[in-house]
Amino acid sequence: MHKTKEQLKKYSPLFTHYTELRIQENTNISLSMLNGDVQQNSKATTSGSSARVFKNGVWGFASTPQITDEDIEDIVKDATNNALFMDEKQKKSIQKDKIPKLPKASTSSENDFSSKKKKATQKQLLDFLAELDEYIDTNFKELTSRTLYLGSLDVRKSLYTSDDAYFFSMVPRTILYINLAMTHKQDNSTIELYDVLGGLGEFQDVFENTHDLFPKIDKLHAHLLNKTESIHPQAGIKDCIIDADVAGILAHEAIGHTTEADLVQGGSIAGEYLNKQVGTSLVNIVDFANTYNNEICPVPVFVDDEGSESLDTVIIKDGVLKNYMHNKESSVTFNTKPTGNARASTFLDEPLIRMRNTAFLPGKSKLEDMIKSIDDGYYLMKSSNGQADSTSEFMFGIVLAYEIKNGKLGRALKDFTISGVAFDVLKTVTMISDDMSWSCGGMCGKKQSITVGMGGPAIKCKINIGGK
Amino acid sequence: MSSNVSKKIQREKKYDVCTQYCIDTLLKKGASKASCSLSIKKNQELNAAHGQMTLNRTTNNISLILKAIVKGKTATLVVNNLNQNTIDSAIDEVIVLANSSKEDESNDIASFQKPKQFNSGSQRGDINKMYDLFINYLSYSKDAYPKTIIEEAMFEFVKSNNYFRNSNKVDFYGQKGYYSFFSMFTSKDGTDISSFNYNGFNTNKLELQLKQCASIDRLLQQSSEQIHSITIKDKFIGDIIISPDCLSQFISYLMGNIRDNALITKTSIFQNKLNKKIADNRLTLHSNPVSENISNGYFITNDGYEAKNSTIIENGVLKTYLLSQYGAKKTGLTRAVNQGGAYEIEKGETSYSSMIKNIKQGILLCRFSGGHPAQNGDFSGVAKNSYYIENGEVKHPINETMISGNLENLFLSIKDISSETIDFGDSILPWISFKGVTVSGK
Q1: Searching chain A, which residue's CA lies closest to the CA of residue B147?
Q2: Residue B3 has what pLDDT?
Q3: Residue B7 has pLDDT above 50, yes or no
């Protein structure tokens, strides 16, 4: 599946307009275990080739699951014909002076995160799950159910464009999802808590042995035990500390999406805020291309699926909205440079403006001091799902949280929902912790489902709590 | 089956040969039971971004799903390439994967059913007509709602041919063609902005302008009104009307409680509620995947049974769970005759306008941004693109308003079901009003 530049360049005589040719293979392994029973034991490989052609402001795209010379020639022709169809139909409606001229990019890059170790077999993966399951079953008898899921996704892409840009990448991700359930002591309802572990890399690089995970499982169980005596939070605006997991989803869902240039063109509120103060001066948000603090991010992108170099996009600097994320076409509209955010999920998807690794930057405070600074509030540690709007109004489900009373952590809280307008919440940020961590299982579903990284430090701000 | 056989013989025969080869070889290689599902899918798709049609896509894909059971252990392997080497490697690998798994007597394949062919919709999309209807939609929305931006829209024709075969001599073939439209939009006036909203539908025929289908025009019009929305200041317990566009989300929450996972783990709010009342007497909910009324249903369930229409809730009584073959064996309950979806709720006797008049204080819920309900059915979330209702009148669009309630109580507290329904092509749903929901403003 690794195609060299020369192997792809040989099709360039077929290119009659700006053309991208991509060969891609996605391999998914999904294993799940419910109360010790294997419920899912599957592997799926999806591979193929696609071409996208630009003519007079419109695009044509075609794809096939085949990768033979003949099939690739066919899809380049089909994509070209699809662009010509649109061009012919739209001739009357598009003004010539408004046709964007795409910026040229001729970057070359090969980034292979394949494991150097011997590849683990699916039996080894299942045995790994079974060992974890046995540990949980043996040690935590009071659980009413336990679910384990191990998933890996290896994405191999080769791209060549008519601008002579080329890249090959192999980016693997392996995640382990653990969900435990117990009965609430007061109302006998079922309560659950999950954790996601893992990240960039193939299984054998991400999980060395089950024993390394036992302390994390113990910690998850301890939080769940606390939840068996959980109480409802009080509704209303509260002083809160949102931990890395919730900060990451806030950065991605509520700020990140509103600053994707296509959504700005679609009317997002961030279109009104460029170079304006949108948060306190403590707030910094960056969409990292591939590296933060000399470490590779969860979803590293070096060259995007249009062949542009992938650059860090500083979205908010010292509380001021500074940049949007771009592909080639939007960079022309906004009179700036592409940021390398064009990404496609599978071989049959066209590149869209997508985030890569979006995070709040750390501040200078210590988490203990942040907790001490709150008399009556909440510590929000883990979210279930999140949605946000073009207005930046967001809603996140919270599944792990504690009350803060007189500067100390108190009782665990039952599941609840938080909401607010993100650009308003950023104006209430008064403390940011000096550390940060990445969430490892992020998927974003903007037309196509794609892996993303999100992260941050702990942030003290005011949040609207939905309660009874 | 020889390599590249595809170019020498008829299409259907080629795929029949391929699926039979897979079953025969899986059995030969050690599977005690095997199934093979092959789907060939072609999409023709027009896309618009910020009000302009910008992209024309044609995509082809194949999905060959092999399932093997070896000594009670099972695995599934999916590839999207039918060359001989790929198929042979996939067969070898799925046997290895099955052997790696754990024995479970609930693993099985569909039992024998008579061979059958299914067909719905047309086999060819009319791209020129699609283009014309799409352009008309974009110009209509621009002219009628100048402050509304079509952020993205997609109009596609999907054609799929599906072959299903297993070692119990199940042999199904189905072909399906349908059009699908989706549009997402926001309305904006300077810094005043609506929440985004979206709508869509599926159909077999291109007989109407897009704006006339499902709730397309109504939601565009609502979006343009929602630029200037007002926050509700107080908290109250009132009535909510859930629109057909939003209702499918709540049905999905309900159905989650009658599927495999909830029933196997005994966490369903409807555990042991079969043939018992779980909703108001006026609620009748069907799952009709093979109904003439549904343009985008399905013929074959994922576990290889011919799909049949069913009534899930009849006059408020739960008539079936939605258990798969595995879930049924695991729980000792009965397998459902379909896998849900294609929902139709029988219309009521109250007109939509009368439903509004019947409400003293409440909201018209048109989109719900909420977390998944807790195991006990408690839900909460933000009412998006919604309206405040007072003294029988829709007063104004709202923002930053949360609603909360309990799923089980909600469907037992139905106030009215509308006499009007909306046909989305993959579901047909009315407006339903519910009592006793907590509404809290900022």
Answers
A1: A267
A2: 34
A3: no
Three state DSSP letters for chain A? CCCCHHHHHCCHHHCCCEEEEEEEEEEEEEEEEECCEEEEEEEEEEEEEEEEEEECCEEEEEEECCCCHHHHHHHHHHHHHHHHHHHHHHCCCCCHHHCCCCCCCCCEEEEECCCCCCCCCHHHHHHHHHHHHHHHHHHCCCCCEEEEEEEEEEEEEEEEECCCCEEEEEEEEEEEEEEEEEECCCCCCEEEEEEEEEEECCHHHHCCCHHHHHHHHHHHHHHHHHHCCCECCCCEEEEEEECHHHHHHHHHHHHHHHHEHHHHHCCCHHHHCCCCECCCCCCCEEEECCEECCEECCCCCCECCCCCECCCEEEEECCEECCCECCHHHHHHCCCCCCCCEECCCCCCCCEECCCEEEECCCCECHHHHHHCCCEEEEEEEEEEEEECCCCEEEEEEEEEEEEECCEEEEEECCEEEEEEHHHHHHHCCEEECCCEEECCCEEEECEEEECEEEECCEEEEEEEECC
CA distance readout (Å), A79 to A6, A73, A447, B57, B187: 21, 10, 20, 7, 33
List pLDDT tens digits, range B70-129.
Answer: 999 999 999 999 999 999 999 999 999 999 999 999 999 999 999 999 999 988 999 999
Query: Which residues 164-223 of A are in CB contact (within 8 Å) with B?
Result: 181, 187, 189-192
pLDDT higher than 90, residue A467? no
Q: Does A363 touch chain B (CB under 8 A)?
A: no
The answer to whether the beta carbons of residues B107 and B74 sit under 8 Å apart is yes
Range B5-225 has CATH code 3.30.2290.10? yes
Domain extents in chain B: 5-225, 230-440
Q: What is the pLDDT of residue B362?
A: 97
| Average pLDDT, integer, range A90-94 | 70
pTM: 0.94
**A47, A58, A464 member nearest B81 (Cβ):** A47
B53/A348 CB distance under 8 A? no
Nearest chain A residue to B375 by CA: give it: A190
Query: Percent of chain A, pLDDT > 90?
Result: 91
CB proximity list for A104: less than 8 A, separation 6 or greater = A163
Q: Which residues between 87 and 146 in chain A have a beta carbon less than 8 angstroms from any beta carbon of chain B?
A: 89-90, 121-123, 126, 130, 144-145
Contact assignment for B57 to A64 by CB distance below 8 Å: no
Q: For the domain A5-227, what is the CATH superfamily, name and number?
A: PmbA/TldD superfamily (3.30.2290.10)
pLDDT single digits (tens) B143-158: 999 999 999 999 999 9
pLDDT of B4 higher than 60: no
Q: Of residues B12 and A377, which shows the higher confidence score?
A: A377
How much is the average pLDDT of A284-308?
A: 97
Q: Domain limits of chain A?
A: 5-227, 236-466
